[in-house]
Design goal:
339 residues, alpha/beta, Rossmann fold, 2 domains, 11 helices
Length: 339
């Protein structure tokens, strides 16, 4: 029987046991990853530089980008010049790109463009993330945030934040492709903070007991509802009133589209159809040709759909929220390092 996406998800997060082929490939993946880590050495030119890596040890979306945006906001509020680096997953090329809000997603990737639009910070995309970080510091950044890159051992870092989807946790605890893990759970011992996207106790139960003190809860809270073609916006709390009586189709090209759909349900929006799509889906007009009413999508999807001429598409904005005390202490720790 062919291994479909649904069967793979059942294996990773359900009761299905991985078959012989997946277990064999898991051993290959583990060996290749270990060999790569042994060969890789941190770039000397970045030694001691204030770089914060925001990543995960599971495949698929966990909420890294909203967290990066929130950390940018905190640093900006403290008057600390910040830049973001990324490899720009899903873009056409692999070379360096200095991202600005109107950079096409085909050149930079959806998440870097989203970050540039959300906070107006310098964003540098390069398959060579060390070169991107050097460019960021040369441009005046005091702190560089890496959106993803926990497994990029050539990139030095002064701090690591590992984001976990509290709904999914670490699945069956196995390495790719038999499970969702990019690295063994033991890797969590080396990170500074484990950011739980969702209910904190669920994540604390999933990590080794001695690491429970590292777990911090993050909530993604709806903020705005924006019409894609006109930019007309209102608070997310008014979304039900604004879209009352309109057949609504929800689309989501992300690692865990169910989280977006659950958010819409919690708001009470009248969604009549849910369309989950692959992470970083490259949207075309035909994706929307059979939708009779309005479309609602994530901000990440919106940066790819803005040029498609959609007339009745809405974007739900969300913001990452963390404990105020943790944010104060995090900012203090950064300031102590750079001052």
């Amino acid at each position: 029987m062919p291994l479909t996406e649904g069967r793979l998800q059942d294996t990773w997060y359900g009761d299905r046991r991985p078959g012989l082929l997946l277990r064999a490939l898991e051993r290959v993946y583990a060996g290749v990853s270990a060999a790569r880590r042994q060969r890789s050495r941190p770039a000397e030119a970045l030694a001691g530089k204030p770089i914060v890596v925001v990543g995960n040890i599971t495949a698929g979306g966990t909420g890294k980008t909203p967290l990066v945006i929130r950390l940018c906001e905190l640093l900006q509020s403290a008057g600390i010049a910040v830049a973001v680096v990324s490899r720009g997953y899903g873009r056409a090329g692999s070379g360096p790109v200095a991202v600005v809000p109107d950079t096409p997603t085909s050149e930079a990737g959806d998440e870097p463009v989203l970050i540039a639009r959300a906070r107006g910070v310098p964003v540098f995309v390069d398959e060579d993330r060390e070169a991107a970080a050097l460019a960021a510091f040369e441009a005046g950044a005091r702190v560089v945030l890496s959106d993803d890159g926990l497994q990029r051992t050539r990139l030095p870092r002064m701090m690591e934040l590992c984001v976990v989807d509290a709904q999914r946790g670490f699945g069956n605890g196995r390495l790719l492709p038999a499970g969702p893990l990019r690295e063994p759970l033991e890797r969590l011992h080396g990170v500074d903070w484990i950011i739980s996207n969702g209910e904190v106790n669920a994540t604390r139960a999933a990590v080794p007991a001695e690491l429970a003190h590292k777990v911090v809860e993050m909530r993604l809270q709806p903020t705005t509802l924006t019409r894609l073609d006109t930019g007309e916006a209102c608070p997310a709390t008014e979304a039900v009133e604004r879209l009352a009586g309109v057949p609504l189709t929800a689309v989501a090209g992300m690692g865990n589209p169910g989280r977006f759909f659950d958010t819409l349900a919690a708001l009470g929006l009248p969604v009549v159809e849910r369309r989950p799509l692959p992470d970083h889906h490259d949207y075309v007009v035909a994706d929307f040709s059979d939708i009779p009413g309005a479309v609602i999508m994530t901000e990440k999807d919106a940066v790819k759909c803005a040029t498609l001429g959609l007339e009745n598409a809405w974007v739900l904005g969300v913001g990452a929220r963390l404990p105020e005390e943790w944010e104060r202490n995090w900012l203090k720790s950064i300031a102590e390092i750079i001052l």
